[in-house]
Design brief:
The structure holds two protein chains of two kinds. Chain A is α+β, with helices and mostly antiparallel strands. Chain A folds into five domains: 375 residues, Rossmann fold; 165 residues, Galactose-binding domain-like (Jelly Rolls); 35 residues; 220 residues, P-loop containing nucleotide triphosphate hydrolases (Rossmann fold, 3-Layer(aba) Sandwich), CATH 3.40.50.300; 79 residues, 2-Layer Sandwich (Alpha-Beta Plaits), CATH 3.30.70. Chain A contains 24 helices and 40 strands. In chain A, strand 1 and strand 2 form a beta hairpin. In chain A, helix 4 crosses helix 5, helix 7 crosses helix 8 and helix 9 packs across helix 10. In chain B, strands 1-2 form a two-stranded antiparallel sheet. In chain B, a hairpin with a 2-residue loop joins strand 1 and strand 2. In chain B, helix 7 packs antiparallel against helix 8. The chains are: A alpha+beta, B mainly alpha.
């Protein structure tokens, strides 16, 4: 129970070589981890920024300055040409918005040209909304410029190998550019439009955009975002800048910070006086917006203008393989836009691939899994069709569905799916769900206020999913509900419903939405998508009305079993312009809601890989364990079981034992002794002589540095089974303080796993002599009681060799005497006892043999009688030591040993003590005392004389 | 082997020269160590508290006046849902215990087991029996893990029993998923417990490693808890980026994903990988160290 001294602790804490190695390994590993985490990825990228002046416009001669940056892989040169990517930003952004994507593409070996579209940032010109004569022609001139770059690979003179990538405004440009310029090798338009007039003036029964309902919320944001030259509302333009382009992963352009939108860019403001009502918009675009926004209706001229900026009419001219990425959380350009593009382009045999992800103009870039998928698809598409590497990507359709919240970061989690063919928005199967409810009158609020809120632009997918936003105004909406679904339905595509409506004016603007209602009654409007309809020629009475079929925007959602579907027909929506006149319509819906479903297989995600990693890890651990156990077993079997013939019957033989501690301290330098049956051997030495260390090695607690120990001829190593034949008390008792003495002995014996009856508790308890105290808890024991119990524990099972370290420590004289008898008796029937002590008297009285150690070495050893027996040396106490020394020196054979002052230790060497005394007396020297010395004492005192000072030894 | 056996004066015959009845694989039986630990006050107190805690929470909920505003966070929603049924009550009890209490309890069982023997001085007598060192560690570890598991089961079991008696057997609700039928909810709850047990293996490993390294039981337990807290703090620092994935506590709350529909196992699996790797390394080091070290206590 020795607690290490602070010094010892400090010594141990000092770095030994092994510790230093371990520490170094840890440091290196940590450094490697940090380096790996912060090291920039991929090869280096260099950039060149330039203000290019290109000529475009209807006649191709109107100069406009474009702010460009070219990103080149470090190793690109005229000798090592690389393919190119034209990377367009979203509405309200600048070339800076797409910087990180540009760097990524450049890192993958593309020359990436980004530029700020005309009308934005530092570029000149006005916003023409991807007009083929302006923005698209600008991009054509950039293709010319790219073809002239020495680093860019070309298919023919003036024809660069190039792909066009962009989101939203940039995606529209990609489609229109591919239609107008055959030099484009592949395009990846994301979250973009097919028909801009339909996007802003939707009508879900299939009417023309002139009959459409104006999507004023989004339109206003865009106009604000591109409009103000001066200090436009920063939040608004920033927000606009942030979202419309931002969505798809990093393959789509990310957002600039607030204030990076048009008008707030530093300097480079467009020339000429700006019209405050139009900002940087071209006059015709501005005028069209003002007309539409004022009346809420579009005239044919405005529709024609928007159609010019739409890929819808030119899809058949697109020959570049097209990867269409569209967002599900997108109230601006819903899935239908990409669907129309896909069908139009595929009709001419051009390769088209469609992917849906859970983000969009509302949902952002979506969860990580979606970002990764979109990025992978984009790179794969470009690598094959532009760079010419990798297999053909194929035309399978991938999509994803929101699966829930991420448990850790509160983001959304999406599950990806795949199927071989693109089913469009009608699904590859349909489920009919009947909704019922009486015909209901609903009021159209004057000037559209208060209005229902279905979605808030940029609120993100969370808002629409949390249904915190969705709210219908009482009295302004009709509800038709289904019975709880008996099984879950995986909706993917545009649901259709049939309605009948009546209006006193013959006309009605209505908003049709489909909610998912859980058993608790909480209703969710998937992605905030609504279907606006404008009905004309309506009767006064609803029973006279003819059913109309409404196609809702495409959604991807799993409606769980037990949930209901709720069809809501509302008269107002904050995102749309509605008739100003108050009216009361009547609405009835008694048909079925037709839900398109798509079957597909889940895309394996990183989770699958991690599962394999986990399985591999477990397998590795199991294999590792089996190997380790096998190795240990093998080593165990190979263990030296031979018996040293010389020591086969010797309980203990210690041979040249040496123990050097890690700090260099040599506790035992050379110890050599034997214990034979029937002997009680005393290991005698002052404190620090190495007794305890020897016993520690003997008990297998410490590994010796050199030398061997044999117990009954068996080589002893830590854990040797032969240790079971030794009972020990080393370094004081060690008991569980909360148990009684008896329980401690029982617990100890249980741990040996040996038969209960072999323990001989009674004998041991008798030796301990604790009486009833054995039932008291150890923590209440005195030091002596613990000591006696510890000796009893050592004697449990009556081991053949008993090793006791300072057994009489703490015992009173009668107990010491009793203990001596016990030990002597113990050694009588072939057993042996090894006792360590620093007390000469104890060894002398208890032991048959003694081994005297000092400073780790044996000083004397042999039978006690032999050592204790008469020795030739005598101690004289005389009145005049100087004279006595002179007298004794004259005596033949007698030598005076150099010994302590006032006393003379004399080796009489055969001369009788009486003769020596007579000689001294004759010389007139008074002799006070004559004490014969014994060898053991000689030996011991020789050590103690040197060591006792300051050691506190008794 | 028989040739090398030897007859001792007391008639012991054993190929390895051991005493009669001694077999290395029979030393330190699991039941003996289990009883040894069961007799300790700290074991009884820790397990008792596991039973008591759900009851204290239950009583505390009786004081709910219904008008306090816990704010809109995940904790408040769990509090609000806690009284909706036995399953939710159990979930709440686990939620409040997982981040600290269970960590301390596991660290106590695993960190104290070897270090306390060393500090009492009884370790050297066990090794002198001799109990093979690897066997001693194995039995100690298995028993400590058994008590840790028992603590977890007691906590959940009491909470489930008391909660069901008080609030009834209702579906499991959560803010991250649809309602789960009671049987399905019970399965999810068991999965949560299973994952928690795996995550706590890191604490068990760390505490056990410290336990064989030091003679101070308090140092081993406290050290493990402190390092766990340090890891939690570092995990809050988002600037560390991807490095945080390597923190042992990074995935400690991934069990929330087991409550969503469908079950999100991505982080759970990664958390298992992280926890099992750490625990294996810690235990490996503990065995490597203990089987080689000089016992000086």
């Amino acid at each position: 129970m020795t607690s290490p001294s602070p010094a010892a602790w400090f010594r141990r804490a000092l770095p030994t070589r092994r510790r230093a190695t371990a520490a170094a390994v840890v440091v290196v590993l940590s450094a490697a981890a940090v380096t790996w985490a912060v090291w920039p990825e991929g090869p280096g990228v260099r950039t060149e920024s330039a203000m290019l002046t290109v000529r475009s416009g209807p006649s191709g001669d109107e100069p406009v300055d474009l702010d460009t940056t070219l990103y080149l892989p470090d190793d690109a040169s005229s000798g090592r040409k690389v393919p190119a990517v034209l990377l367009a930003h979203g509405f309200g952004g600048t070339k800076e918005s797409v910087r990180s994507d540009a760097e990524e593409f450049a890192g993958r070996g593309y020359a990436v040209l980004t530029w700020t579209a005309r009308g934005f940032g530092r570029s000149g010109g006005e916003i023409h909304l991807d007009n083929p004569d302006y923005e698209v022609r600008d991009a054509q001139r950039l293709l010319d410029w790219l073809a002239a770059r020495p680093e860019v690979r070309t298919n023919a003179a003036g024809d660069p190998q190039v792909g066009v990538v962009g989101g939203s405004y940039g995606g529209g440009l990609a489609l229109l550019l591919a239609a107008q310029d055959r030099r484009v090798d592949a395009i990846v338009p994301m979250i973009t439009w097919n028909d801009l007039s339909r996007a802003f003036l939707p009508e879900s029964t299939g009417a023309a955009p002139t009959e459409g309902v104006f999507k004023k919320g989004w339109a206003g944001l865009f106009f604000g975002g591109g409009g103000n030259v001066g200090s436009g509302p920063a939040g608004l333009s920033g927000g606009t800048a942030a979202q419309p382009q931002g969505a798809p992963a990093s393959a789509g352009p990310p957002s600039p910070g607030p204030g990076a939108g048009p008008g707030t860019g530093p300097g480079g403001a467009p020339t000429g006086a700006a019209d405050p009502s139009c900002g940087r918009f071209a006059a015709d675009v501005c005028a069209a917006y003002l007309r539409i926004a004022t009346t809420g209706r579009a005239d044919q001229a405005a529709v024609d203008l928007l159609r010019r900026s739409s890929p819808a009419g030119v899809l058949d001219r697109i020959k570049a393989p097209t990867l269409l990425v569209q967002g599900e959380a997108d109230t601006l350009f819903p899935l239908g836009e990409a669907d129309a593009n896909a069908r139009g382009i595929a009709a001419t045999g051009t390769p088209v691939r469609v992917a849906w992800f859970t983000g969009g103009h509302d949902g952002g870039s979506g969860p990580r899994s979606d970002e990764d998928r979109v990025k992978f698809l984009t790179i794969q598409w470009l690598d094959h069709y532009v760079k010419g590497e990798g297999d053909a990507p194929g035309d399978d359709f991938t999509w994803s569905r929101i699966a829930g919240f991420d448990a850790l970061d509160r983001g959304l989690v999406a599950t990806g799916f795949r199927r071989a063919d693109y089913p469009g928005l009608t699904g590859n199967a349909r489920r009919e769900v009947t909704v019922t409810g009486p015909a209901q009158p609903i009021a159209n609020p004057p000037n559209g206020n208060p209005a229902a809120i279905s979605s808030i632009p940029f609120a993100g997918g969370l808002a629409s999913l949390l249904d915190g936003v969705a709210g219908d105004v009482p009295g302004q909406h009709a509800r038709f509900e289904s019975a709880p679904l008996t099984e879950a339905v995986d909706v993917a595509g545009s649901p259709t419903v049939t309605l009948r409506a009546a209006s006193p004016t013959g006309e009605a603007v209505l908003f049709v939405k489909l909610y998912d209602v859980d058993p608790d009654g909480a209703a969710t409007l998937p992605n905030g998508l609504v279907a606006p309809i404008r009905l004309t020629g309506l009767p006064q009475q609803v029973q006279d009305a003819r059913p109309v079929t409404v196609t809702l925007p495409g959604i991807v959602r799993r409606v769980e079993a037990g949930h209901r579907l709720r069809l809501v027909v509302a008269t107002s929506d904050q995102a749309y312009t509605t008739p100003a006149e108050p009216t009361v319509y009547t609405v009835a819906a008694d048909g079925a809601v037709s839900l398109p479903t798509v079957s597909g297989e889940p895309i394996p995600t990183a989770a699958t890989i991690w599962r394999w990693v986990l399985a591999g890890l477990l397998a590795a651990i199991v294999i590792g364990l089996v190997v380790v156990v096998a190795l240990v077993r093998r080593r165990h079997r190979r263990q030296d079981r031979s018996v040293h013939p010389e020591y086969a019957d010797t309980p203990l033989a210690v041979r040249e034992l040496r123990k050097e501690y890690a700090d260099g301290f040599v506790a035992v330098s050379n110890v050599d002794f034997e214990v034979h049956p029937g002997q009680v051997v005393g290991l005698l030495g002052p404190n620090g002589a190495g007794k305890t260390t020897t016993l520690r090695v003997l008990m297998g607690l410490t590994q010796p540095t050199a030398g061997e120990i044999y117990v009954f001829g068996r080589r002893l190593v830590p854990g040797s089974p032969v240790l079971s034949r030794i009972g020990a008390l080393v370094e004081g008792p060690g008991f569980l303080p909360h148990l009684s003495g008896l329980d401690n002995l029982k617990a100890y014996w249980r741990a040996t796993g040996r038969p209960w009856e072999d323990a001989q508790f009674d004998a041991a308890l008798e030796i301990a002599g604790l009486g009833d105290s054995v039932h008291r808890k150890i923590k209440n024991y005195s030091h002596g009681m613990r000591q006696r119990l510890a000796i009893a524990q050592a004697m449990l099972g009556l081991p053949e060799l008993l090793v006791l370290d300072e057994p009489t420590d703490g015992l009173d004289p009668p107990q010491i005497a009793e203990m001596r008898r016990v030990l002597q008796r113990y050694a009588t029937d072939g057993r042996a006892v090894l006792v360590s002590s620093h007390l000469l008297a104890e060894v002398e009285q208890t032991c048959t043999h003694a081994v005297v150690v000092n400073k780790g070495r044996i000083v004397a050893s042999g039978p006690v009688e032999e050592i204790v027996g008469e020795s030739p040396s005598v101690l004289f106490d005389v009145t005049d030591p100087v004279a006595a020394r002179a007298v004794l020196d004259r005596l033949h054979g007698v030598t005076v040993l150099p010994e302590s002052d006032g006393q003379l230790v004399v080796d009489t060497n055969g001369t009788a003590r009486s003769d020596v005394v007579a000689e001294l007396v004759r010389a007139g020297i008074g002799v006070d005392r004559v004490v014969p010395r014994r060898r053991l004492e000689d030996a011991f005192l020789a050590l103690v004389g040197e060591n006792s000072r300051g050691s506190g030894d008794r | 082997m028989a040739g090398s056996s030897v007859e001792t004066p007391l008639g012991v015959t054993d190929p390895a020269g051991a005493a009669r009845g001694y077999r290395p694989s029979a030393t330190m039986p699991f039941a003996a160590e289990f009883r040894r630990q069961a007799s300790r006050r700290r074991t009884q107190l820790a397990l008792g508290f596991m039973v008591l805690l759900p009851l204290i929470i239950l009583i505390a909920f009786q004081f709910d006046s219904g008008d306090d505003d816990n704010g809109r966070n995940e904790f408040s929603s769990l509090v609000e849902l806690a009284t909706s049924g036995g399953l939710n009550f159990t979930l709440f009890s686990i939620f409040v215990s997982a981040s600290f209490l269970l960590v301390v309890v596991v660290a106590l069982f695993c960190g104290d087991t070897v270090a306390s023997e060393a500090s009492w001085g009884s370790l050297r007598y066990l090794l002198a029996i001799p109990v093979p060192r690897a066997r001693l560690l194995t039995v100690k570890l298995v028993v400590a893990l058994a008590y840790s598991g028992l603590a977890l089961i007691l906590l959940a079991g009491t909470a489930l029993l008391a909660g069901t008696l008080r609030y009834g057997w209702s579906p499991l609700r959560s803010t991250v998923a649809a309602e789960l039928e009671p049987t399905e909810g019970l399965l999810r709850l068991l999965a949560v417990l299973g994952y928690l047990a795996v995550v706590l293996l890191v604490v068990a490993g760390l505490a056990f490693l410290l336990s064989v390294t030091t003679d101070a039981a308090l140092g081993a337990v406290g050290g493990a808890v402190l390092l766990w807290i340090l890891s939690s703090i570092l995990d809050q620092i988002t600037a560390l980026g991807a490095l945080r994935d390597f923190l042992p506590t990074h995935f400690s709350t991934a069990w929330l994903g087991l409550l969503s529909t469908p079950v999100q196992t991505d982080d759970v699996v990664r958390g298992c990988i992280s926890a099992i790797s750490y625990a294996t390394v810690f235990w490996g080091l503990a065995f490597w160290r203990f089987t080689r070290k000089d016992i000086t206590s």
